[in-house]
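TA notes, week 10

Several of you asked for a full example with nothing omitted. So below is the full record: structure tokens for the whole chain, then the designed sequence directly under it. When grading your own attempts, check the secondary structure regions first.
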């Protein structure tokens, strides 16, 4: 994304947000011209943004049926969770080795922001939780893990938004994040890995139960 035109980047961000938050739901047909008009943007950056989103597996481009928002399913949840169960504990362990003072300040600020958020504000809690996970990945100091997991974060978020009205574990993640920050701060790699694995697993277990009652 480093060489993307500014207008294309803006269109990409706007459309991606609409897909992740289900404003553009799975299977929705996408008309480039209408989308450009709704976003009050030019057709070219919107077209280029849609190509990038197709690469991210959020848009499907077909010769016969045009463009539509990619579907999501329980098999997707299983496969995405397998990747995150493996890579996010790895990132937590690396963060315990490599996190700088600035990384720790960011993690602590996000933890405090989450703690100050009203327990019933699931959308805000989910947003801060996502930022917290991103900050841990950045603290791992591995650009390839950052790229890989950002892709899977985008795919995961749509599943989370589907389950959002019935999620009840988000407030409890405040305590888990405190434990994770403490483990990273004390360079306890094994504990950081374990807390992250259990944190991600508990979240996916609840999303799975909600989407597959």
């Amino acid at each position: 994304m480093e060489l993307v035109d500014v207008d294309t980047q803006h269109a990409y961000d706007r459309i991606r947000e609409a897909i992740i938050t289900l404003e553009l739901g799975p299977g929705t047909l996408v008309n480039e011209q209408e989308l450009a008009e709704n976003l009050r943007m030019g057709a070219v950056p919107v077209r280029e943004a849609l190509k990038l989103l197709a690469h991210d597996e959020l848009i499907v481009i077909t010769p016969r049926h045009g463009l539509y928002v990619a579907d999501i399913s329980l098999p997707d949840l299983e496969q995405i969770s397998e990747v995150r169960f493996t890579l996010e504990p790895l990132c937590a362990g690396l963060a315990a080795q490599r996190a700088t003072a600035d990384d720790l300040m960011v993690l602590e600020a996000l933890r405090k922001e989450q703690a100050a958020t009203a327990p019933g504000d699931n959308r805000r809690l989910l947003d801060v939780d996502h930022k917290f996970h991103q900050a841990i990945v950045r603290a791992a100091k591995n650009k390839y893990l950052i790229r890989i997991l950002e892709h899977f974060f985008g795919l995961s978020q749509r599943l989370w938004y589907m389950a959002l009205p019935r999620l009840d574990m988000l407030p409890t993640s405040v305590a888990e994040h405190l434990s994770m920050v403490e483990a990273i701060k004390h360079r306890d790699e094994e504990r950081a890995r374990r807390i992250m694995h259990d944190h991600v697993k508990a979240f996916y277990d609840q999303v799975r139960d909600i989407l597959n009652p």
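DSSP finds nine helices and three strands in the chain. Use that as a sanity check on your answer.
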